Amino acid sequence: MPQDLKEILGRLKYTDDAKVVQQITAHMKAVTGRMASVRRKLVVMSGKGGVGKSMTTVNLALAFARQGDKVGVLDVDLNGPCVPKMLGMRGQRFTMTPEGAIPPVGPLGLKIGSMDFFLDDLSPVQWKGPMDLSPVWLGVTEMNVIREFIADIVWGDLDYLLTDLPPGAAADKPPVIAGFIPDLDGAIVVTTPSEVASDVVQKSIAYARDLGINVLGIVENMSRYLCPQCGTESELFDGDTQAMCQALDLPLLGRIPFDRTLGRSFDKGAPLLDPTYPTLKRYDEIVTRIKALLDYKKILAQQL
Question: 38-303 maps to which CATH number?
Fold first, then answer.
């Protein structure tokens, strides 16, 4: 158990009759064991909803797979899981074994873990607790479910595990969830050029850094609108993501246009997989940059 947690628990005046601490400790050990066979663990976060974070996660995962890597995607948006729908995997289920839950396999061999595999049709996830304590109760319940969810999935050997974090109601939620993943290699942040999105994203990055999370860089999604008829790209927003990256001392990993053809394919659960498609090539370029950053940081850490 971490020393700071011991100190906090030592100051509590109430008995732990429900053995919550014991359960959390067991979950943390289980998560560490599951993650031991994953070579590199990345989270995709934003802090702002509606920026295309899940679309980015899925396409980055497919890009890693196109380069020959064994890849898993963990969808921890418990209230609005959408990764299975995008990959045409709705209706599939985990295979329950004594060792844990075996995740379904999707396009290009992606292993997918999502709350959607537990739900029927469009059934919502409802958190129940004391009405007078609902904000705190629901938050704690959700966090515990996410921790147990991560601990129970049997990933096997993976080169990369990409975790699609929920946007959250505040900039601190995604980084806190990211902290559940041991030996996290880094975070990829998704934004749009919108100034509104950029303001929230910067707060989320600051919070992530305060928690010691290594932010690898920023992906600018919906950077421009790609005309499906002529292929011309037009500006959608007036923001300046490049200037934000310079201010934060972070690399701009790449720009992805608003591509209606690509968007429709995932919306209908028939993901576009043609490696020659121009927008998919941009994801391949981003993945190449991510790998280079990870290799550089590994070499740097070995020299220190």
Answer: 3.40.50.300
